[in-house]
Amino acid sequence: xxxxxxxxxxxxxxxxxxxxVISFGIMHVAPGEPTVVGQQLDAKVTAADRERLRAYYGLDxxxxxxxxxxxxxxxxxxxxxxxxxxxxxxxxxxMERLPITLWINVLAIGLILVIAVPIGVISAVFxxxxxxxxxxxxxxIGFAIPSFWLGLLLMIAFGVNLGWLPxxxxxxxxxxxxxxxxxxxxxxxxxxxxxxxxxxxxLAGMSRFMRSGMLEVIRxxxxxxxxxxxxPESQIRYRYALKNAxxxxxxxxxxxxxxxxxxxxIVEYLFSIPGMGRLFYEAVMTRDYPxxxxxTVIGAVLTLLGNLMADISYAWADPRIRHGGKA
Amino acid sequence: xxxxxxxxxxxRSNNPRLAALAVWWSNYPLMAVGGLIVATVVITAAIAPWxxxxxxxxxxxxxxxxxxxxxxxxxxxxxxxxxxxxxxYGARVSLAVGFVAVGIAIAIGILLGAIAGHLxxxxxxxxxxxxxxxxCFPTFFLILAVxxxxxxxIWNIMIVIGLTSxxxxxxxxxxxxxxxxxxEFVQAAISLGVAGPRMVWRYLLPNAMGPILVSAxxxxxxxxxxxxxxxxxxxxxxxxxxxxxxxxxxxxxxxQIAWWLSVYPGLAILITVLGYNxxxxxxxxxxxxxxxxx
Lengths: 327, 294
Fold this sequence. Notes:
The complex is a heterodimer of chains A (about 325) and B (about 290).
Chain A: H1 2-29, H2 47-57, H3 63-75, H4 90-125, H5 130-144, H6 147-161, H7 180-218, H8 221-228, H9 233-255, H10 257-270, H11 276-285, H12 289-317, H13 319-322
Helix pairs in contact in A: 1-12, 4-5, 4-7, 4-9, 4-10, 4-12, 5-7, 6-7, 7-9, 7-10, 9-12, 10-11, 10-12, 11-12
Chain B: H1 2-12, H2 16-27, H3 29-51, H4 83-119, H5 121-135, H6 139-150, H7 154-163, H8 167-181, H9 184-191, H10 196-232, H11 244-253, H12 260-287
């Protein structure tokens, strides 16, 4: 188990380096520097001024030198300062926005598990029943529905027409005046739609996966053995088959992290939530290099951590790896 | 049962082609429905300029935000443009982006997958490590950043989506080539002295075409979704050019007063993506009997 852990951690290093190279390369090969944006057409800004700005931001040095300097600072968690007028450290800006994004994604993963696993199991156990067929229809629609459109429809239905749920932000205007309990309820009400919209794609994929996993396990030899030994069918299904079918779900959860993190841009834009996704959108719109690079790297690291956590939980859950063998 | 009915029909029918179609339809209902949807989108895109009732970018201040009626089937937007017309033209965008982006992704995927699977060794491990790395990147971040830096345009979108979605195909092609190597006809070809690119091109790839086609069709669905998300964020097709995604942006801004701006374009995206997904799944069932659900 420990050796496995070390191996996994070690394998992350080249991935991390690759991620920084890709992010850095893309940001700098692309045309349109911050020194050009907004000043290009301004007659008062001379070429010399622009050169001075470039030198100030270190953009006049060769690319590899810029990369190396950036990497050195990255190693001590210094992502530089934002190019925007507040000029604050990137790390601070991201850290104050990160919790809400993480909360939404963690809740979304929770929701996916709570809904998708039972759907998948029921579909597999009652295969070809009405239940299974409606689940299949749900899955196909869930795959095809644009999440931002679903969000819009839910906003129209629950926010505009019924008026049950708020449609933007994470707090009401009078949040400051509320008591503690009311504040939590208010936050929860604001998070219901965003969490659901974040979860919808994963929901469809996961229930499909759970269904086929369960079907596969039911056909396995050890289930036939259990049946031959005369165990009750419910015990076979929910005690032995389910446990084994749940294993691959862990890996799939890890794989769904990049989608969730990328999707947070859309969800946070749609619901005006002040999270990392929205910050990224704003950074992209203003060509705030350090902020864009910082968030891309942090997002990729979060994804790696998600995968690592999935691998570790898998190793912990699978006795074949837990007891030192090879998976 | 349908199958047998159709078979009887084929024997009795005067028109064998039509009857063959009926058999095909009853054997692969998913694919038939998906194919029908995709064909409709393709035809719509092709004939949009001739059937559209209005000019897609014509501003009409006398007809701002009209709800759906017989004159404006899907209502009008904040500049009085006909939403139905704009949606017809939007089909062109989603079709073009879907096909070109997937074309790029497939080309890169086949190239890298074939190199990795055929050469093996160092080339294989380097290519596969790179693939893993790109796979665990939040690709949507990457796409957003690049599009914003390159100036949003339909060409940039196609290229960037293509460049960030080849990983699945590369893995697939590699796996197919590795499993084909053990097949008898490949062994026979090897013993006849066939090797190198000729081996890949003439013997291996043609036999891997089925799964590649399936993943291409499913890839189009993904690309259509990404394009609409980008346009929705204002980083895709730029106004006044219509796309399903950017009509939805207006829908978001006028959510309290104009539901039709949100409902119809989203429905178009949903149905189109559903069509590609059904077609892809149907193709998979047809080409690989192991996947067929009894």
